[in-house]
Amino acid sequence: MFIDTHTHLYVEQFDEDRDSVVQECLDAGITKLLLPNIDSSSIESLHQLASSYPDICLPMMGLHPCSVTESFQEELDIAKSWLDKRDYIAIGEIGIDLYWDKSTLPYQVEAFKQQIEWAKELGLPIVIHARDSFDEIFEVLDEVNDERLRGIFHCFTGTIDQAKKVLGYGDFLLGIGGVVTFKNGGLDKTLQEIDLDHLVLETDSPYLAPTPNRGKRNKSPYLTLIVDKLVDIYGKTPAEIGEITSANAVKMFNLK
Hints:
alpha/beta; 5-stranded parallel β-sheet
């Protein structure tokens, strides 16, 4: 059994073949697809997919940092209204992204903090998007860290020191995706010093397709390519990789 802990299967890139992708996942032993939200424009399609496959596709609610603008509070109010109406497995994806626009950093920090508070109040994990922003995210987490804080560092691509900092918060895991298969990505070397007990699997589809499909549309069935790389790194069988990472995901997200 494998779990893709981060896929945007509800976006328009899958409008032509969404159902067949789900079937491909089941054929490959991928039994759960965890769906982070983006912003108010994605909520309807997110819910639609979750309703179509209620035992497989499990939604999160949150505001992606790349959708944070000066009017972010309106977006947060919409997200919060949904959290008050139905159940979600996590607050996500949230965080800070300084790759595209550094000018929104103050808004991103405030949105990040508000959503962390929601997670604590609701007893949910957070799913963190960190791009060119580890220092800024650590600054926030250092401020708000307590026994209620837990979650996933999605698409982890950091150094061994950054990995140790993340794991030092206590109840956090590293989301490992297609980057681990990139020839000069360096993540494989970092993972040689990180125990498998600290990892979950993810694709971030339709983005970041693993080698040999790099640059193409990513999809959850490609999770098996990430597993193959982890087999090389850890010297375990695919079944062992699946068992350990799935158990980590089940515990973190309180999956049934």
